[in-house]
Design goal:
This protein has 163 residues and is an alpha+beta fold. Helix content is 29%, strand content 29%. The protein has a single domain, classed as OB fold (Dihydrolipoamide Acetyltransferase, E2P). The chain is globular, with a radius of gyration of 19 Å. Mean pLDDT is 81; it is low at 1-19.
């Protein structure tokens, strides 16, 4: 027990504790991420893609036509979305963090194809009162549409509701 207390105190007092690291997208399975109720889950067609000069620090902007809401409380509509990159796992302090962050930010990104039907999970954010709500698409939970994939997701959601 003393060893555990010592280790806890040592790490608590350490100045080299990591302030970044793995995000949920790095750690959890698709099933675990889909169970997270913070995500809205939709079926949508990609109407428009702006990925000119897109990179991790400036991800593609997408217009989606939502045909079905699998989880969430909003109607079928056309929405503006941001196609998020996989988060970096770089610690913010020390070493070569600044250089590594700059390298990660400069990695090019490609958006989805116009006309593609997909099942997407994401979160709405209001960046400014005057701008329309933006749907931030999860970097991991982007699936080409199929009835089988939709049923797989619905089964996960139904299992979660029964627990």
């Amino acid at each position: 027990m003393r060893t555990l207390i010592f280790l806890f105190a040592f790490f608590l007092g350490s100045t080299n504790i990591s302030f970044a690291g793995a995000s949920p997208e790095h750690v959890f399975s698709d099933e675990e991420l889909l169970r997270n109720k913070v995500y809205n889950i939709i079926v949508a067609e990609v109407i428009e893609v702006d990925d000119k000069e897109a990179k991790n620090s400036n991800p593609p902007k997408v217009v989606l036509s939502v045909s079905q809401v699998l989880r969430g409380n909003w109607g079928h509509q056309t929405i503006n979305a941001v196609w998020l990159p996989i988060p970096h796992d770089i610690d913010y302090g020390g070493g070569d963090a600044k250089q590594r962050l700059e390298e990660w930010e400069s990695i090019p990104m490609i958006g989805p194809k116009t006309g593609e039907k997909m099942i997407l999970a994401g979160k709405f954010h209001d960046l400014e009162e005057s701008s329309p709500r933006l749907f931030f698409v999860s970097p991991r939970l982007q699936f080409p549409y199929s009835e089988e994939k939709k049923q797989w997701i619905l089964n996960i959601l139904n299992t979660q509701d029964q627990q």
